[in-house]
Amino acid sequence: MHIGIIGLGKMGGNMRDRLRAAGIDVTGYDRNPEVTDVASTADLVAALPAPRLVWVMVPAGEITTSVVTELSGLLSDGDLVIDGGNSRFTDDFTHSALLAKTGVNYIDAGVSGGVWGLENGFGLMVGGSADQVERAMPVFDALRPSGPREEGFVHAGDVGAGHYAKMVHNGIEYALMQAYAEGYELLEKRDDLIKDVPGVFTAWQRGTVVRSWLLELLVKALHEDPELGEIEGFVDDSGEGRWTIEEAINNAVPVPTISAAIFARFVSRQEDSPAMKAVAALRNQFGGHAVKKAD
Fold this sequence. Notes:
Elements: E1 2-6, H1 10-21, E2 25-29, H2 41-47, E3 53-56, H3 62-72, E4 80-83, H4 89-100, E5 105-112, H5 117-120, E6 123-127, H6 130-135, H7 137-143, E7 153-157, H8 161-189, H9 197-203, H10 213-224, H11 240-250, H12 256-268, H13 274-287
Parallel strand pairs: 1-2, 1-3, 3-4, 4-5, 6-7
Antiparallel strand pairs: 5-6
């Protein structure tokens, strides 16, 4: 199998490496000449055997739309585009319809795993027709974590379902991170009683009901910077939390915990706080997201 990848950033580059390690031929294109395999999107399309399979891994929104629009003029009937970025699920309907005009198929793939995906594999949530998902299954199997397929991959439904599932996943992630962060601040506040905050979190990694990969990453961050003194408590958001809340409102589903987590991020942009330092550290650990250095 031969696949093209557009976007070779933190995750796209790791996906290229993981696919190649699994024996899949990959041609990648990126605007960065230091990492790209070809000089242009057109060159990438020309390098792929028909029917082509192209994975788009660029920032959501206008950039993804521009790439899909360009591909609609380069690809042919029977080709397949997979959008693996964090696009809003409603954009999938537009992109799928655009590509369908020339007979190009479309799958949306919610991808989780961050900068650790090369080593651990990527959790995948996909939407699209069953025949196209099956066609791309060798790619999904190479990218997902080892073990039972159903524990790292799901065909969630029709086009849009993959990104919808990822949106909800990220909303839950916001809430989990906020809970750990608030616990960190409470422990850190009682320095007259708690003498080893990193040690408390470290001890929670085995046997406790709050153990998780996010907890492991917080422990890693605390061992690198025990007082999180190197970063500001400023936390950005990439959109999925907001979209989750909007969907909850549209469907009359109460999501108070997720809502509180996104509003806490807004608070972080107004004043520094230990809890927001913990959230910032977590985002940097799992996704390589930028942090603001403390003065």
